[in-house]
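Page 37, top half.
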Amino acid sequence: MRQFDGNTYRGLKAVTRRLINSFGKQEVAAMETRVNHVMLSNYASLNPDHEGCFMPADVLADLTHASGNTEVLEYLASLQGKILVDEPEGRDCNLEAKSLQVVKGMADSISSIMEAMENGKIDAHERPALIEELKTLQSQAADLLTGLSAAR
């Protein structure tokens, strides 16, 4: 039995189509993978003949790496209630300065959320900006963790 409704799988095909289109032409995208352009077309197709045809993980990895487009990965992560964030840079950092940056980022994020909820809810226009702000904060906290772990 499928785990998600039809709209979710159509959404997956839509982000797959955008990944493929980021190469300009399917033929160009196919050169980065083990499959041909016809298979790439099938992975993104909403045609009932291809509704169960999805991109294999190795092809996704190739195209994501070649394009830098992580939209499919982000979509898949969101289906599991997760978000995809950049790895921390792992560079040496000034722990005091990084700690202050994280605390300020947390305060700013909470302030933004509270401001957005003044009308009782976060609307569709506010949500993407808040998510980006929290992703930035998460990345900064990960940098702090990496810096702290590397400190001797």
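Page 37, bottom half:
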Amino acid sequence: MPLLKWKQKETAQLLDYLEAQGYIEPSAIGQGYWQISMRGRVLAHSVLVREFKADTINRHLDALLARAREVNESTRFPDRITCIKVISPYPVAQRSTGIKIAYCLSRKDITEEAYESAAHELRAAYKGNFGNILSYYTYPAKAIARFLQSGSKVLKLHEYNAQDLIQLQGHIVLDTLTLRQ
């Protein structure tokens, strides 16, 4: 293979190995031609799981906590985050494919008018179409989830109610009810 600048013996060994593993097969064109096998196609099109460094994960977690505090302090959002719990092994010391985060929302202590105004603002900013009445009324919680996620591939966020969140094993990183942080 002059393109790879390999010796003929090394190239033959590699082709033999790939054929033995089932990734290539001899082509119908003739001797010395190879084609990718079905197993090779599956391997070539498989999605590899991305791993993140511990520093990256911790940085994303810190940014999540900052966004959670923003949700709680802002009048833009009608609900607040009462608890965030890391339900993956924590603290992260090595590379990982990401961390699972459980969180709980509750209504802010604001008037009905202020709540509806904030919810209306979030719905008005949404560019999509609400397919049904349920998605219309639950959109404020979805908007908060999108804001918390903010495009992070590291964080796997899941909303739980307070009773279910308490039952989950994990490490609490934000608890606004008892102010443990």
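Margin note: The chain has two domains: 8-45, 54-175.
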